[in-house]
Protein backbone atom coordinates (compact mmCIF):
# COMPACT_ATOMS: atom_id res chain seq x y z
CA UNK A 1 0.00 0.00 0.00
CA UNK A 2 1.48 3.37 -0.97
CA UNK A 3 1.39 5.68 1.99
CA UNK A 4 3.03 9.05 2.26
CA UNK A 5 4.00 10.32 5.70
CA UNK A 6 1.32 12.97 5.43
CA UNK A 7 -1.36 10.34 5.18
CA UNK A 8 -0.14 8.34 8.12
CA UNK A 9 -2.36 9.12 11.01
CA UNK A 10 -5.54 9.10 9.00
CA UNK A 11 -6.08 12.84 8.73
CA UNK A 12 -7.41 15.36 11.18
CA UNK A 13 -8.89 12.85 13.58
CA UNK A 14 -5.51 11.38 14.44
CA UNK A 15 -3.20 14.33 14.31
CA UNK A 16 -2.85 16.58 17.26
CA UNK A 17 -0.62 19.59 17.68
CA UNK A 18 2.77 18.81 19.06
CA UNK A 19 2.47 15.05 18.65
CA UNK A 20 4.46 14.19 15.55
CA UNK A 21 5.61 10.65 15.05
CA UNK A 22 9.27 10.02 15.64
CA UNK A 23 11.30 8.76 12.70
CA UNK A 24 11.68 5.33 14.32
CA UNK A 25 8.01 5.05 15.06
CA UNK A 26 7.14 6.11 11.54
CA UNK A 27 9.41 3.49 10.06
CA UNK A 28 7.88 0.84 12.27
CA UNK A 29 4.41 1.95 11.32
CA UNK A 30 5.22 1.87 7.61
CA UNK A 31 6.60 -1.61 7.92
CA UNK A 32 3.39 -2.70 9.61
CA UNK A 33 1.32 -0.97 6.95
CA UNK A 34 3.09 -3.05 4.32
CA UNK A 35 2.20 -6.16 6.30
CA UNK A 36 -1.42 -5.10 6.44
CA UNK A 37 -1.52 -4.80 2.67
CA UNK A 38 -0.89 -8.51 2.15
CA UNK A 39 -3.65 -10.57 3.77
CA UNK A 40 -7.01 -10.52 2.05
CA UNK A 41 -8.69 -12.81 4.51
CA UNK A 42 -10.29 -11.04 7.46
CA UNK A 43 -9.04 -13.14 10.36
CA UNK A 44 -5.47 -13.22 9.00
CA UNK A 45 -5.62 -9.46 8.62
CA UNK A 46 -6.93 -8.92 12.13
CA UNK A 47 -4.25 -11.18 13.55
CA UNK A 48 -1.67 -8.99 11.84
CA UNK A 49 -3.31 -5.90 13.31
CA UNK A 50 -3.35 -7.28 16.84
CA UNK A 51 0.27 -8.40 16.58
CA UNK A 52 1.32 -5.10 15.08
CA UNK A 53 -0.45 -3.15 17.81
CA UNK A 54 1.35 -5.14 20.49
CA UNK A 55 4.70 -4.67 18.82
CA UNK A 56 4.47 -0.99 18.05
CA UNK A 57 2.98 -0.04 21.40
CA UNK A 58 5.13 -2.45 23.48
CA UNK A 59 1.95 -4.00 24.85
CA UNK A 60 1.42 -7.38 26.42
CA UNK A 61 -1.85 -8.15 24.61
CA UNK A 62 -3.64 -6.83 21.59
CA UNK A 63 -7.17 -7.55 20.43
CA UNK A 64 -9.57 -6.48 17.73
CA UNK A 65 -13.31 -6.43 18.29
CA UNK A 66 -15.71 -6.15 15.40
CA UNK A 67 -19.12 -4.57 15.56
CA UNK A 68 -22.06 -6.88 14.91
CA UNK A 69 -24.61 -4.25 13.99
CA UNK A 70 -27.65 -6.54 14.02
CA UNK A 71 -26.93 -8.04 17.41
CA UNK A 72 -25.69 -4.69 18.79
CA UNK A 73 -22.69 -6.52 20.16
CA UNK A 74 -18.96 -6.31 19.88
CA UNK A 75 -17.34 -9.59 18.98
CA UNK A 76 -13.79 -10.37 19.95
CA UNK A 77 -12.39 -11.50 16.62
CA UNK A 78 -8.70 -11.75 17.26
CA UNK A 79 -6.63 -12.00 20.35
CA UNK A 80 -3.52 -13.90 21.23
CA UNK A 81 -5.41 -16.05 23.73
CA UNK A 82 -9.14 -15.68 24.42
CA UNK A 83 -11.70 -17.62 22.44
CA UNK A 84 -14.60 -15.71 20.97
CA UNK A 85 -16.26 -13.33 23.41
CA UNK A 86 -19.33 -11.25 22.71
CA UNK A 87 -20.02 -8.07 24.61
CA UNK A 88 -23.22 -6.06 24.44
CA UNK A 89 -22.55 -2.69 22.88
CA UNK A 90 -21.67 -0.23 25.63
CA UNK A 91 -20.32 -2.76 28.12
CA UNK A 92 -16.75 -2.52 29.40
CA UNK A 93 -14.06 -0.21 28.12
CA UNK A 94 -14.37 -1.66 24.65
CA UNK A 95 -18.10 -0.96 24.68
CA UNK A 96 -17.61 2.53 26.07
CA UNK A 97 -15.11 3.25 23.32
CA UNK A 98 -17.60 2.05 20.68
CA UNK A 99 -20.38 4.11 22.19
CA UNK A 100 -18.37 7.29 22.60
CA UNK A 101 -16.41 6.75 19.38
CA UNK A 102 -13.20 8.05 20.83
CA UNK A 103 -9.98 6.71 22.24
CA UNK A 104 -9.92 5.78 25.90
CA UNK A 105 -6.58 5.64 27.70
CA UNK A 106 -6.90 4.13 31.17
CA UNK A 107 -3.75 3.99 33.33
CA UNK A 108 -5.40 1.86 36.07
CA UNK A 109 -8.19 -0.33 34.77
CA UNK A 110 -9.45 -1.72 38.08
CA UNK A 111 -9.98 1.84 39.26
CA UNK A 112 -12.15 2.66 36.26
CA UNK A 113 -15.88 1.91 36.72
CA UNK A 114 -16.25 1.19 32.98
CA UNK A 115 -13.76 -1.68 33.13
CA UNK A 116 -15.35 -5.15 32.90
CA UNK A 117 -13.19 -7.70 34.79
CA UNK A 118 -15.16 -10.59 33.18
CA UNK A 119 -12.77 -10.91 30.26
CA UNK A 120 -9.80 -10.97 32.64
CA UNK A 121 -11.41 -13.84 34.49
CA UNK A 122 -11.83 -15.76 31.25
CA UNK A 123 -8.31 -15.16 30.00
CA UNK A 124 -6.47 -15.26 33.30
CA UNK A 125 -4.67 -12.01 32.47
CA UNK A 126 -4.45 -9.18 35.00
CA UNK A 127 -5.11 -5.97 33.15
CA UNK A 128 -3.17 -3.02 34.51
CA UNK A 129 -3.54 -0.34 31.89
CA UNK A 130 -5.25 -0.21 28.53
CA UNK A 131 -5.53 1.84 25.40
CA UNK A 132 -8.79 1.36 23.51
CA UNK A 133 -9.61 3.03 20.25
CA UNK A 134 -12.39 2.94 17.69
CA UNK A 135 -11.90 1.64 14.16
CA UNK A 136 -13.76 3.56 11.49
CA UNK A 137 -14.23 2.61 7.88
CA UNK A 138 -13.58 5.01 5.03
CA UNK A 139 -17.13 6.35 5.26
CA UNK A 140 -16.57 7.18 8.93
CA UNK A 141 -18.81 4.36 10.21
CA UNK A 142 -17.67 2.47 13.28
CA UNK A 143 -16.61 -1.06 12.35
CA UNK A 144 -14.91 -2.18 15.52
CA UNK A 145 -12.56 -1.48 18.37
CA UNK A 146 -8.87 -2.15 18.83
CA UNK A 147 -7.45 -2.57 22.29
CA UNK A 148 -3.97 -3.02 23.70
CA UNK A 149 -3.32 -4.00 27.31
CA UNK A 150 -0.42 -3.64 29.72
CA UNK A 151 2.43 -1.59 28.35
CA UNK A 152 5.70 -3.37 29.08
CA UNK A 153 6.92 -0.46 31.19
CA UNK A 154 4.58 2.08 32.72
CA UNK A 155 1.39 3.24 31.11
CA UNK A 156 0.42 4.32 27.58
CA UNK A 157 1.42 7.92 26.96
CA UNK A 158 0.60 10.62 24.43
CA UNK A 159 3.11 9.29 21.91
CA UNK A 160 1.47 5.88 22.14
CA UNK A 161 -1.89 7.46 21.49
CA UNK A 162 -0.62 9.07 18.29
CA UNK A 163 0.94 5.81 17.14
CA UNK A 164 -2.20 3.84 17.95
CA UNK A 165 -4.38 6.26 16.03
CA UNK A 166 -2.11 6.07 13.03
CA UNK A 167 -2.28 2.29 13.19
CA UNK A 168 -6.06 2.36 13.58
CA UNK A 169 -6.39 4.50 10.47
CA UNK A 170 -4.31 2.02 8.46
CA UNK A 171 -6.22 -0.84 9.95
CA UNK A 172 -9.53 0.68 8.84
CA UNK A 173 -8.35 0.85 5.24
CA UNK A 174 -7.21 -2.76 5.36
CA UNK A 175 -10.49 -3.82 6.97
CA UNK A 176 -12.54 -2.12 4.29
CA UNK A 177 -10.49 -3.89 1.62
CA UNK A 178 -10.89 -7.27 3.33
CA UNK A 179 -14.63 -6.80 3.57
CA UNK A 180 -14.93 -5.83 -0.06
CA UNK A 181 -12.84 -8.83 -1.06
CA UNK A 182 -15.04 -11.10 1.04
CA UNK A 183 -18.18 -9.66 -0.55
CA UNK A 184 -16.75 -10.04 -4.00
CA UNK A 185 -15.78 -13.66 -3.30
CA UNK A 186 -19.22 -14.33 -1.87
CA UNK A 187 -20.83 -12.94 -5.01
CA UNK A 188 -18.54 -14.94 -7.24
CA UNK A 189 -19.31 -18.10 -5.30
CA UNK A 190 -23.02 -17.39 -5.47
CA UNK A 191 -22.86 -16.73 -9.18
CA UNK A 192 -20.92 -19.93 -9.77
CA UNK A 193 -23.41 -21.87 -7.67
CA UNK A 194 -26.30 -20.41 -9.64
CA UNK A 195 -24.63 -21.15 -12.95
CA UNK A 196 -23.97 -24.72 -11.87
CA UNK A 197 -27.58 -25.07 -10.70
CA UNK A 198 -28.82 -23.80 -14.05
CA UNK A 199 -26.56 -26.24 -15.86
CA UNK A 200 -27.81 -29.14 -13.74
CA UNK A 201 -31.39 -28.04 -14.25
CA UNK A 202 -31.25 -27.67 -18.02
CA UNK A 203 -29.14 -30.77 -18.60
CA UNK A 204 -31.96 -32.87 -17.16
CA UNK A 205 -34.57 -31.57 -19.56
CA UNK A 206 -35.47 -33.71 -22.56
CA UNK A 207 -33.51 -32.71 -25.67
CA UNK A 208 -36.52 -33.33 -27.87
CA UNK A 209 -40.14 -34.18 -27.23
CA UNK A 210 -41.54 -37.56 -28.19
CA UNK A 211 -43.74 -37.96 -31.23
CA UNK A 212 -47.04 -39.52 -30.31
CA UNK A 213 -49.65 -39.96 -33.06
CA UNK A 214 -52.94 -38.27 -32.23
CA UNK A 215 -51.31 -35.95 -29.72
CA UNK A 216 -49.50 -32.64 -29.75
CA UNK A 217 -47.34 -31.46 -26.89
CA UNK A 218 -45.11 -28.62 -25.84
CA UNK A 219 -42.94 -27.67 -22.90
CA UNK A 220 -41.48 -24.32 -21.92
CA UNK A 221 -38.85 -23.68 -19.27
CA UNK A 222 -37.85 -20.13 -18.37
CA UNK A 223 -35.57 -20.05 -15.34
CA UNK A 224 -35.64 -17.05 -13.03
CA UNK A 225 -32.49 -14.95 -12.63
CA UNK A 226 -31.87 -16.67 -9.33
CA UNK A 227 -32.65 -20.16 -10.33
CA UNK A 228 -35.63 -21.97 -8.82
CA UNK A 229 -36.08 -25.70 -8.82
CA UNK A 230 -38.46 -26.42 -11.69
CA UNK A 231 -38.19 -29.30 -14.08
CA UNK A 232 -40.39 -31.19 -16.50
CA UNK A 233 -40.27 -34.39 -18.46
CA UNK A 234 -42.15 -35.78 -21.41
CA UNK A 235 -40.90 -39.21 -22.43
CA UNK A 236 -42.26 -42.34 -24.09
CA UNK A 237 -41.50 -45.23 -21.77
CA UNK A 238 -42.69 -48.74 -22.56
CA UNK A 239 -45.46 -47.41 -24.80
CA UNK A 240 -46.76 -44.89 -22.28
CA UNK A 241 -46.13 -41.17 -22.05
CA UNK A 242 -44.54 -39.99 -18.82
CA UNK A 243 -45.69 -36.47 -17.97
CA UNK A 244 -43.84 -34.71 -15.18
CA UNK A 245 -43.89 -31.18 -13.82
CA UNK A 246 -41.94 -30.62 -10.63
CA UNK A 247 -40.90 -27.66 -8.53
CA UNK A 248 -38.45 -28.03 -5.66
CA UNK A 249 -38.72 -25.41 -2.93
CA UNK A 250 -35.85 -22.99 -2.56
CA UNK A 251 -33.18 -21.67 -4.86
CA UNK A 252 -29.74 -22.76 -5.99
CA UNK A 253 -27.96 -26.02 -6.48
CA UNK A 254 -29.83 -28.04 -3.81
CA UNK A 255 -33.32 -27.88 -5.35
CA UNK A 256 -31.92 -28.33 -8.87
CA UNK A 257 -30.22 -31.54 -7.77
CA UNK A 258 -33.34 -32.84 -5.96
CA UNK A 259 -35.58 -32.50 -9.01
CA UNK A 260 -32.98 -33.98 -11.31
CA UNK A 261 -32.53 -36.96 -9.01
CA UNK A 262 -36.29 -37.39 -8.86
CA UNK A 263 -36.64 -37.27 -12.63
CA UNK A 264 -33.94 -39.92 -13.05
CA UNK A 265 -35.58 -42.17 -10.45
CA UNK A 266 -38.93 -41.89 -12.22
CA UNK A 267 -37.61 -42.73 -15.68
CA UNK A 268 -35.73 -45.71 -14.37
CA UNK A 269 -38.60 -47.02 -12.26
CA UNK A 270 -41.15 -46.78 -15.08
CA UNK A 271 -38.73 -48.32 -17.55
CA UNK A 272 -38.48 -51.28 -15.20
CA UNK A 273 -42.27 -51.58 -15.23
CA UNK A 274 -43.00 -50.28 -11.75
CA UNK A 275 -46.54 -49.10 -11.04
CA UNK A 276 -47.40 -45.42 -10.56
CA UNK A 277 -48.61 -45.63 -6.95
CA UNK A 278 -45.60 -47.65 -5.80
CA UNK A 279 -43.12 -45.39 -7.55
CA UNK A 280 -44.78 -42.25 -6.22
CA UNK A 281 -44.61 -43.50 -2.68
CA UNK A 282 -41.02 -44.70 -3.01
CA UNK A 283 -39.85 -41.39 -4.46
CA UNK A 284 -41.80 -39.43 -1.84
CA UNK A 285 -40.30 -41.40 1.02
CA UNK A 286 -36.83 -41.21 -0.45
CA UNK A 287 -37.15 -37.41 -0.68
CA UNK A 288 -38.55 -37.26 2.87
CA UNK A 289 -35.47 -39.11 3.98
CA UNK A 290 -32.91 -37.06 2.07
CA UNK A 291 -34.24 -33.49 1.78
CA UNK A 292 -33.33 -31.04 4.54
CA UNK A 293 -36.11 -30.17 7.00
CA UNK A 294 -38.88 -28.08 5.53
CA UNK A 295 -37.80 -28.68 1.94
CA UNK A 296 -40.07 -30.41 -0.53
CA UNK A 297 -40.82 -30.95 -4.20
CA UNK A 298 -44.27 -30.30 -5.61
CA UNK A 299 -44.77 -32.70 -8.48
CA UNK A 300 -47.34 -33.92 -10.96
CA UNK A 301 -46.50 -37.40 -12.18
CA UNK A 302 -48.73 -38.82 -14.88
CA UNK A 303 -48.73 -41.75 -17.29
CA UNK A 304 -50.80 -41.57 -20.44
CA UNK A 305 -51.78 -44.71 -22.25
CA UNK A 306 -52.19 -43.56 -25.87
CA UNK A 307 -54.15 -46.66 -26.82
CA UNK A 308 -57.15 -45.92 -24.59
CA UNK A 309 -56.26 -42.24 -23.84
CA UNK A 310 -56.38 -42.80 -20.12
CA UNK A 311 -54.17 -40.47 -18.15
CA UNK A 312 -53.46 -41.68 -14.64
CA UNK A 313 -51.74 -39.29 -12.28
CA UNK A 314 -50.68 -38.52 -8.75
CA UNK A 315 -49.75 -35.08 -7.55
CA UNK A 316 -47.76 -34.20 -4.50
CA UNK A 317 -48.74 -30.63 -3.75
CA UNK A 318 -48.79 -29.59 -7.42
CA UNK A 319 -52.03 -27.75 -8.20
CA UNK A 320 -54.14 -26.73 -9.95
CA UNK A 321 -54.12 -29.46 -12.57
CA UNK A 322 -56.21 -28.11 -15.41
CA UNK A 323 -57.99 -30.14 -18.02
CA UNK A 324 -59.79 -28.29 -20.80
CA UNK A 325 -62.75 -30.33 -22.03
CA UNK A 326 -63.55 -29.62 -25.66
CA UNK A 327 -67.04 -31.04 -25.56
CA UNK A 328 -68.24 -28.88 -22.66
CA UNK A 329 -65.89 -26.00 -23.53
CA UNK A 330 -65.00 -25.83 -19.83
CA UNK A 331 -62.14 -26.57 -17.49
CA UNK A 332 -61.99 -29.40 -15.05
CA UNK A 333 -59.55 -28.70 -12.22
CA UNK A 334 -57.94 -31.25 -9.95
CA UNK A 335 -56.17 -30.68 -6.71
CA UNK A 336 -53.12 -32.49 -5.40
CA UNK A 337 -53.62 -36.09 -4.35
CA UNK A 338 -51.22 -35.67 -1.43
CA UNK A 339 -48.94 -33.14 0.27
CA UNK A 340 -45.76 -31.85 -1.40
CA UNK A 341 -43.35 -34.73 -1.99
CA UNK A 342 -40.76 -35.23 0.69
CA UNK A 343 -42.56 -33.07 3.25
CA UNK A 344 -43.46 -36.24 5.17
CA UNK A 345 -43.50 -40.00 4.72
CA UNK A 346 -46.56 -41.37 2.91
CA UNK A 347 -48.32 -43.55 5.43
CA UNK A 348 -50.35 -45.30 2.74
CA UNK A 349 -50.11 -45.59 -1.02
CA UNK A 350 -52.46 -43.28 -2.90
CA UNK A 351 -54.66 -44.42 -5.74
CA UNK A 352 -54.12 -42.53 -8.95
CA UNK A 353 -56.69 -40.19 -10.44
CA UNK A 354 -57.81 -41.32 -13.86
CA UNK A 355 -58.83 -38.93 -16.62
CA UNK A 356 -59.79 -39.98 -20.13
CA UNK A 357 -58.65 -37.42 -22.67
CA UNK A 358 -61.25 -36.97 -25.38
CA UNK A 359 -60.55 -35.45 -28.76
CA UNK A 360 -59.67 -31.78 -28.48
CA UNK A 361 -59.02 -31.97 -24.72
CA UNK A 362 -56.00 -30.26 -23.16
CA UNK A 363 -53.91 -31.06 -20.14
CA UNK A 364 -52.46 -27.79 -18.81
CA UNK A 365 -49.68 -28.01 -16.23
CA UNK A 366 -48.05 -24.79 -15.13
CA UNK A 367 -45.63 -24.13 -12.31
CA UNK A 368 -46.52 -21.64 -9.57
CA UNK A 369 -44.06 -19.22 -11.19
CA UNK A 370 -46.99 -18.44 -13.52
CA UNK A 371 -49.94 -18.56 -11.12
CA UNK A 372 -48.08 -16.53 -8.52
CA UNK A 373 -46.40 -14.06 -10.91
CA UNK A 374 -47.26 -10.66 -9.47
CA UNK A 375 -47.78 -7.30 -11.10
CA UNK A 376 -46.60 -4.04 -9.55
CA UNK A 377 -49.74 -3.91 -7.38
CA UNK A 378 -48.90 -7.26 -5.81
CA UNK A 379 -51.77 -9.03 -7.58
CA UNK A 380 -51.07 -12.59 -8.74
CA UNK A 381 -51.68 -13.74 -12.35
CA UNK A 382 -53.92 -16.49 -11.07
CA UNK A 383 -55.89 -19.36 -12.52
CA UNK A 384 -58.72 -17.41 -14.18
CA UNK A 385 -56.33 -15.60 -16.54
CA UNK A 386 -54.67 -18.90 -17.45
CA UNK A 387 -58.00 -20.53 -18.26
CA UNK A 388 -59.16 -17.52 -20.25
CA UNK A 389 -55.99 -17.51 -22.36
CA UNK A 390 -55.97 -21.25 -23.01
CA UNK A 391 -59.64 -21.27 -23.90
CA UNK A 392 -59.22 -18.41 -26.38
CA UNK A 393 -56.33 -20.25 -28.08
CA UNK A 394 -57.67 -23.80 -27.77
CA UNK A 395 -57.58 -24.50 -31.50
CA UNK A 396 -53.96 -23.42 -31.86
CA UNK A 397 -50.91 -25.65 -31.60
CA UNK A 398 -49.50 -26.16 -28.07
CA UNK A 399 -46.44 -23.96 -28.70
CA UNK A 400 -48.75 -21.14 -29.76
CA UNK A 401 -50.86 -21.57 -26.63
CA UNK A 402 -47.69 -21.44 -24.54
CA UNK A 403 -46.63 -18.25 -26.29
CA UNK A 404 -50.06 -16.73 -25.65
CA UNK A 405 -49.82 -17.54 -21.96
CA UNK A 406 -46.43 -15.83 -21.79
CA UNK A 407 -47.79 -12.82 -23.69
CA UNK A 408 -50.74 -12.55 -21.32
CA UNK A 409 -48.39 -12.91 -18.37
CA UNK A 410 -46.11 -10.12 -19.58
CA UNK A 411 -49.04 -7.87 -20.44
CA UNK A 412 -50.35 -8.40 -16.93
CA UNK A 413 -47.09 -8.09 -15.04
CA UNK A 414 -45.58 -5.21 -17.01
CA UNK A 415 -42.09 -4.49 -15.76
CA UNK A 416 -42.43 -6.61 -12.61
CA UNK A 417 -39.41 -8.95 -12.48
CA UNK A 418 -39.67 -12.74 -12.76
CA UNK A 419 -38.58 -14.15 -9.42
CA UNK A 420 -39.47 -17.80 -9.86
CA UNK A 421 -38.96 -20.36 -12.62
CA UNK A 422 -41.69 -20.56 -15.23
CA UNK A 423 -42.47 -24.00 -16.57
CA UNK A 424 -45.34 -25.16 -18.76
CA UNK A 425 -46.28 -28.60 -19.99
CA UNK A 426 -49.13 -28.64 -22.48
CA UNK A 427 -50.62 -31.79 -23.96
CA UNK A 428 -53.48 -31.93 -26.39
CA UNK A 429 -55.33 -34.86 -27.83
CA UNK A 430 -55.90 -33.82 -31.41
CA UNK A 431 -59.47 -33.28 -32.57
CA UNK A 432 -60.75 -35.38 -35.49
CA UNK A 433 -59.46 -34.10 -38.88
CA UNK A 434 -62.91 -32.79 -39.83
CA UNK A 435 -62.90 -30.45 -36.84
CA UNK A 436 -59.65 -28.87 -37.93
CA UNK A 437 -60.19 -25.67 -39.78
CA UNK B 1 -44.50 -9.27 6.85
CA UNK B 2 -44.64 -9.02 10.62
CA UNK B 3 -44.35 -11.67 13.30
CA UNK B 4 -45.54 -11.23 16.84
CA UNK B 5 -44.55 -13.89 19.34
CA UNK B 6 -46.29 -14.14 22.70
CA UNK B 7 -46.23 -16.66 25.47
CA UNK B 8 -49.50 -17.94 26.89
CA UNK B 9 -50.32 -20.00 29.94
CA UNK B 10 -49.38 -23.61 29.53
CA UNK B 11 -46.87 -22.40 28.57
CA UNK B 12 -47.52 -22.30 24.85
CA UNK B 13 -46.15 -20.10 22.08
CA UNK B 14 -48.51 -17.99 20.03
CA UNK B 15 -47.16 -16.74 16.69
CA UNK B 16 -49.22 -14.11 14.94
CA UNK B 17 -48.29 -13.44 11.32
CA UNK B 18 -49.37 -10.39 9.39
CA UNK B 19 -48.76 -9.58 5.73
CA UNK B 20 -47.74 -11.57 2.66
CA UNK B 21 -46.05 -14.87 3.42
CA UNK B 22 -44.12 -14.98 0.12
CA UNK B 23 -40.37 -15.44 -0.43
CA UNK B 24 -39.54 -11.99 0.92
CA UNK B 25 -41.96 -12.38 3.84
CA UNK B 26 -40.65 -15.82 4.77
CA UNK B 27 -37.07 -14.50 4.55
CA UNK B 28 -37.96 -11.65 6.82
CA UNK B 29 -39.52 -13.62 9.66
CA UNK B 30 -38.00 -17.06 9.05
CA UNK B 31 -35.19 -16.99 11.55
CA UNK B 32 -37.21 -15.23 14.22
CA UNK B 33 -40.10 -17.66 13.82
CA UNK B 34 -37.92 -20.76 13.86
CA UNK B 35 -36.11 -19.46 16.93
CA UNK B 36 -39.30 -18.40 18.68
CA UNK B 37 -41.43 -21.41 17.85
CA UNK B 38 -39.10 -24.37 17.45
CA UNK B 39 -36.24 -23.52 19.78
CA UNK B 40 -38.54 -23.01 22.76
CA UNK B 41 -39.87 -26.58 22.30
CA UNK B 42 -43.34 -25.66 23.54
CA UNK B 43 -46.69 -26.40 21.89
CA UNK B 44 -47.50 -23.59 19.49
CA UNK B 45 -50.48 -22.00 17.80
CA UNK B 46 -50.00 -20.00 14.63
CA UNK B 47 -52.49 -17.25 13.81
CA UNK B 48 -52.69 -16.69 10.05
CA UNK B 49 -55.70 -14.36 10.10
CA UNK B 50 -53.48 -11.46 9.05
CA UNK B 51 -51.88 -13.33 6.14
CA UNK B 52 -53.33 -12.42 2.75
CA UNK B 53 -51.08 -14.58 0.54
CA UNK B 54 -48.88 -17.64 0.90
CA UNK B 55 -46.29 -18.96 -1.57
CA UNK B 56 -44.25 -22.14 -1.54
CA UNK B 57 -41.55 -20.46 0.56
CA UNK B 58 -44.21 -19.56 3.13
CA UNK B 59 -45.43 -23.14 3.16
CA UNK B 60 -41.85 -24.26 3.65
CA UNK B 61 -41.53 -22.07 6.74
CA UNK B 62 -44.72 -23.47 8.29
CA UNK B 63 -43.71 -27.02 7.44
CA UNK B 64 -40.24 -26.62 8.85
CA UNK B 65 -41.59 -25.18 12.12
CA UNK B 66 -44.17 -27.97 12.43
CA UNK B 67 -41.54 -30.60 11.67
CA UNK B 68 -39.03 -29.05 14.05
CA UNK B 69 -41.56 -29.03 16.88
CA UNK B 70 -42.65 -32.57 16.12
CA UNK B 71 -39.02 -33.61 16.44
CA UNK B 72 -39.15 -32.21 19.98
CA UNK B 73 -42.34 -34.08 20.77
CA UNK B 74 -44.57 -31.00 20.46
CA UNK B 75 -47.44 -30.02 18.22
CA UNK B 76 -48.25 -26.89 16.27
CA UNK B 77 -51.74 -25.86 15.17
CA UNK B 78 -52.50 -23.29 12.51
CA UNK B 79 -55.71 -21.27 12.58
CA UNK B 80 -57.51 -18.33 11.06
CA UNK B 81 -56.40 -18.86 7.44
CA UNK B 82 -58.11 -16.47 5.02
CA UNK B 83 -60.02 -18.15 2.14
CA UNK B 84 -57.19 -17.67 -0.39
CA UNK B 85 -54.63 -19.20 1.97
CA UNK B 86 -57.02 -21.99 3.00
CA UNK B 87 -57.49 -22.76 -0.71
CA UNK B 88 -53.72 -23.20 -1.12
CA UNK B 89 -53.63 -25.59 1.86
CA UNK B 90 -56.49 -27.65 0.41
CA UNK B 91 -55.27 -27.65 -3.19
CA UNK B 92 -51.78 -28.75 -2.29
CA UNK B 93 -52.72 -31.50 0.11
CA UNK B 94 -51.18 -29.82 3.14
CA UNK B 95 -54.09 -30.45 5.49
CA UNK B 96 -52.83 -33.98 5.76
CA UNK B 97 -49.56 -32.99 7.40
CA UNK B 98 -50.28 -29.60 8.95
CA UNK B 99 -52.79 -29.15 11.77
CA UNK B 100 -55.09 -26.58 10.18
CA UNK B 101 -58.17 -25.55 12.16
CA UNK B 102 -60.67 -22.72 11.76
CA UNK B 103 -60.14 -20.70 14.91
CA UNK B 104 -58.16 -20.18 18.11
CA UNK B 105 -60.32 -22.35 20.43
CA UNK B 106 -59.90 -25.28 18.02
CA UNK B 107 -56.16 -24.63 17.84
CA UNK B 108 -55.85 -24.61 21.63
CA UNK B 109 -57.87 -27.82 21.84
CA UNK B 110 -55.62 -29.42 19.21
CA UNK B 111 -52.40 -28.82 21.08
CA UNK B 112 -53.81 -29.56 24.54
Report on this model:
The complex is a heterodimer of chains A (437) and B (112). With 437 residues, chain A is of the alpha+beta class. Chain A has two domains: 174 residues, GAF domain (Beta-Lactamase, 2-Layer Sandwich); 242 residues, PPM-type phosphatase domain (Phosphatase 2c, domain 1). In chain A, the strands form three sheets. A six-stranded antiparallel beta sheet of chain A has the order 3-2-1-6-5-4, sandwiched between helices. In chain A, strands 7-16-15-12-13 form a five-stranded antiparallel beta sheet. In chain A, helix 2 runs antiparallel to helix 5. The N terminus of chain A is likely disordered. In chain B, strands 1-2-3-4-5 form a five-stranded mixed beta sheet, with helices on both faces. The mean pLDDT of chain B is 93. In chain B, helix 1 runs parallel beside helix 2. The termini of chain B are far apart. Chain B has one domain: STAS domain (Transcription Regulator spoIIAA, 2-Layer Sandwich), CATH 3.30.750. Chain B has 112 residues and is α/β, with parallel strands linked by helices. Chains A and B meet through loops of A and helix 2 of B.
